[in-house]
Specification:
The chain is α+β, with helices and mostly antiparallel strands. It has two domains: 49 residues; 219 residues, no CATH class. Helix content is 39%, strand content 19%. The chain is rod-shaped, with a radius of gyration of 52 Å.
Length: 358
């Protein structure tokens, strides 16, 4: 439409210019005036030809008051797209985000929460299995082993050593251990109480103690040194007044609810339990500081030939789930094994009893 109007407009201008020039030429004979008129006409013509028609702007009442146009192509149109739930709007992006973490969608829940719940369920299942194992009697397992009464409780007894609570005793114990390694009989006599208790009979005292352990005849070969070393290297506990130290911790801290003859404590971590008294047999499980029930009171020698050439002794035990197995005796200690007690007498720490049994 504008092109047609432009052509008509130009034609009218050209016609008017020609008529005007013709009149000017006729009336004005001065050629300078004619040239000037021609130049002005040409300039007007070029300006109109190149500039095109002027733009026409329409103003709505809303724009006059500062409101935005409701034109679909304007900003109000974009706002309308946002507010009507269109995916192109920001609200749509927020809705999508909310959908991703919606608790109504089980696949979108936090996987860590699921793992925690699964672990909790598995732990409960393991406890249930252990409980059921503790009440089973002589039930055959799938691997051919048997399952008997397990411990009354799945107890553990972690190492305890209160020696550092008394710097004086800590130094004394270090010196005592050094004397034990050297088999220093003089140091031992100096720090053994005159009334030391070494049995549950009426015969006690240092003289009987020396005879009992063969220290008067051949002290170097006495078994006292190895027993003392094991007792002193297994920690212990002070009484409330910090005046009496009892070692090892297995005796000092053993649960009173368990029979001290039927139960023993594992004194190391990750100790293998075997299906036979042989380290080349199948490993049933590994245990750390557990309290185990003894299947019997026997000690079993290593069976058959082993790749490690071992010649130790083994204890037959029941695992926490009630399964029979064997443990190397050196990793197991009973609360009724040898234990010692120390207190201060005449300004010096002395051993006041060293006994086994009950």
């Amino acid at each position: 439409m504008w092109e047609v109007l432009r052509v008509i407009f130009l034609l009218v201008l050209i016609s008017s210019a020609i008529v005007t020039l013709d009149k000017v030429v006729k009336r004005v004979q001065n050629w300078k005036i004619w040239v000037s008129a021609t130049a002005v006409t040409a300039a007007v013509f070029l300006a109109l030809a190149l500039g095109g028609p002027p733009e026409v702007h329409f103003t709505t009442p809303g724009q006059m008051t500062g409101e935005k146009s409701s034109s679909p192509g304007g900003e109000a149109g974009e706002q309308a797209a946002k507010s009507d739930g269109s995916p192109q709007g920001e609200n749509a992006g927020q809705n999508n985000s909310q959908q991703e973490i919606s608790p109504d969608n089980p696949e979108d829940k936090n996987p860590r929460d699921n793992n925690s719940q699964n672990s909790f369920s598995q732990d409960n299942a393991s406890q249930d299995n252990a409980s059921s194992g503790s009440t089973a009697k002589d039930s055959k397992q799938g691997d051919g082993t048997s399952k008997e009464n397990a411990p009354e409780q799945n107890s553990v007894l972690f190492p305890v050593d209160d020696a550092s609570q008394s710097p004086g005793f800590l130094k004394f114990r270090e010196d005592f251990l050094t004397a034990v390694r050297k088999k220093d009989l003089d140091f031992l006599k100096q720090h053994v109480s005159e009334n030391i208790k070494y049995s549950f009979g009426e015969t006690n005292g240092i003289k009987g103690f020396l005879v009992e352990w063969g220290l008067n005849s051949n002290a170097g070969s006495s078994g006292i040194w190895s027993e003392l070393y094991e007792v002193l290297t297994l920690g212990g506990a002070f009484d409330k007044q910090k005046t009496v130290f009892t070692a090892p911790y297995v005796f000092a801290k053993f649960p009173s609810s368990l029979d001290r003859f039927q139960y023993s404590a594992v004194i190391n971590q990750n100790v293998n339990i075997y299906s036979e008294p042989n380290s080349d047999s199948r490993v049933i499980m590994g245990l750390s500081y557990n309290i185990l029930k003894l299947a019997d009171n026997n000690s079993y020698p290593t069976t058959g030939r082993t790749l490690k050439g071992e010649a130790g002794t083994w204890k037959k035990i029941l695992t926490p789930s009630g399964q029979k197995g064997y443990i190397d005796e050196k990793y197991l200690r009973r609360p009724v094994d040898y234990r010692a007690q120390f207190t201060i007498k005449n300004g010096e720490w002395q051993m006041i009893f060293f006994v086994a049994g009950d």
